[in-house]
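Practice problem: predict the structure.
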Amino acid sequence: MQPQWVPTERDIAEARITDFARFVAERTGVRAADYHDLWQWSVTDLAGFWHALWDYFALGEIAGDVLTSTDMPGAQWFPGTRLNYVDQVIRQARSDRPAIRALSENGPIREVSWAELIDHTAAFARTLRELGVRRGDRVAGYLPNVPEAVVAFLATASIGAVWSACGQDYSPKAALDRLGQLEPTVLITADGYRFGGKTYDKRDDIATLCAGIPSLRATVAVSRLGLDVPDALPWHDAIAMAEAESQVITTEPVEFDHPLWIVFSSGTTGLPKGIMHGHGGVLLEHLKAVALQSDIGPDDTFFWYTSPSWMMWNFQIAGLLAGATIVCYDGSPTHPSPDALWRLAAEVRATVLGTSPGYVLACSKAGAEPSTEHDLSALRTVGITGSTLPTSSALWLSEHIGEHVQVCSISGGTDVVSAFIGGVRTVPVWPGELSAPYLGVALDAYDPAGQPVRGEVGELVITAPMPSMPVRFWHDDDGKRYHDAYFDMFPGIWRHGDWITITDHHSVIVHGRSDSTLNRHGIRMGSADIYQSVERLPEIAEALVIGAEQPDGGYWMPLFVVLAPGTELTDELKARINNTIRTEVSPRHVPDEIIPAPGIPHTRTGKKLEVPIKKLFQGADAARVVERSAVDDPDLLDWYSALPQTGHN
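Answer:
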């Protein structure tokens, strides 16, 4: 297959990663012929690479060794070195561009200058201290994607406290399942938000949340709807001193692995796991991922459609580490029309825009013409994550936003709050493939015996430590849950849970989750391959496939389809679906049944619930296999549970 995007000589010459390669050559004598050579060095000489990265970004003095143990889990990074994530943000302050552009569904663009960002951070840090927040205490956010959330996070981090947040689309129970277990001392929230043309008053939910967290000393409320939140300190009062005079921010130096934030697993099968990352690991990983891999710098406007519930919110803040302007938007990407996100990107002159395969597919089916209807001349890169980007959608993007725009699918996870694989400015993009492993990521594909494979499907593994791997899980003092999550299958090797193929040109194809693998007659298949072919059909809004082993040894592989409005699942449409799968994927992927469904249940961050639905059809109790508050539309679980559990073999 031919690349859909190829870097020009100018792209390569001006790329930040090219400058880094020159820095490495001058420093070490290692002269990489191309990106793959540079990557190979970065995973062979781990200490040398991460030391070079530290010095390239001039992060200060290193107290001793870079890496004293390469054990996984248990690697020891930069022992004795002290720093604070916020210091790197402060270093980027400037007056010629804003730090944040904030968008909403019903108002003008609001700009937050770098001076305002730092002053408000300093003022809120002072308020937190006055409220009794100390190093190591947890500060929780129950907020939409607004600048105040960024300020609250930076203020929390600056004093050595630990941030954790979720969006206000989460119910009080779902928020309590996450934030409540941390016993936070202060809650930052908002009176509500607007989404899809509707207004959501969250005051009752806030009261429920506060009542469920007895450790809270104070609640601070941001005004989005102009409503009074009882017993809460108004945000404006919390930063009032910043309005009167410029604040001097003082950051608390902390150990390299001192907790920066706690992010959460989906929580579909139990209480969400709190995943803790350290200041130093996140700082290094995000500088690498944003500045080198994504080529984002001081002249960029970085806009990823996200919410505080998702790790991409944390990832977008990293734009500030590179001096870029970031964009906060708390509305719908499809309101008032399917192409709303493209319109917003044009308004803020975004150079890097991030979205999901689902949004791209929706635009394609709606007949959107982004580059024709909106001025996207500033756009250089479109980032994609959340699930696999089908080849057809990748090509649609090239055709409808311009072949000069690099389409960068990335894949990683909340686990490392970054990507393992993605794009780079000096490497071509092949449709349906991720261009390359990120620097410092010792990625491989293993067969069941733990042997590397090429050109065939294998387990995605990481064979050497990364600084942004979790410091630990919350309430996992002996480390057992952390070990069992990643290192149980291949001792000392991180198994991520994805099926991938590494190609002969070093790109990576992601086939889907290995824990939801389709295994018909001993042939392993990824669900993503089916979705790519079926969801492209105009009659199909979305699909879900499972493979359920039956008690008598049989295997049932149904395909659930959500039909487009006005569409019926006729025999002709079923035949066309089957034929599409047979010709575009393989005859082995053709489902046993095609069943119309009212919807597909997802986690709150958009992942299809393949494994829980599979367990339902194997006779498991719905209350045991999935936590309803972790599902975007819990009522759909009742529909799947009510389907007959017999006769599927």
